[in-house]
# Entry
Amino acid sequence: MTGSPTAQHQLDLVPDALLAGRAADGDTAAFEALARRHGPLMRATARRLTGSLADADDVVQETLVQAWKQLDTLREPAAVKGWLLRIVGSRSIDHLRKRRNHVELDTAENQLDDTPRTKAQDPENNAVNASRVEALKAALAALPEEQRRCWVLKEFNDQSYEEIALTLNISPASVRGRLARARITLARTMEEWR
# Structure
């Protein structure tokens, strides 16, 4: 990291648009502040899209390298978050294509089962929950990629339709359509678990 902790803290308070502009001018401290601010969301998004923590870390690293090299192409500095997430999405797709036959969606288990496990928990309940998570993972894996990406960004990242549209570089109407189709498919597939 560059600079003192106080200088870093001050940069953490600067708006995205100003940081992106400074980073585009070669200010590494401003770029590091953007990476600190948006890195956790980028990593979570990459993990949800790739299903792998290792791939997510690779995706974020590649995203930051690409972003640093292409900051001068960012037309709207205030939209840097969406721009970074679009790069994450593209890089995640690249990783998924590389390992298409080995896609694992372990994210669903982590998101759905936030309750701590205790020895006193009912084993039958554990088995049912594990089966439900596996069914959801399979259902998500069976969705077309564009529907899965929209669903993950909406349900796991809690993004609005507009944010998803910006992230995926599609219209909000397309987001709504893809989400509607994904929800219908998942509802049918998961019917027995209701």
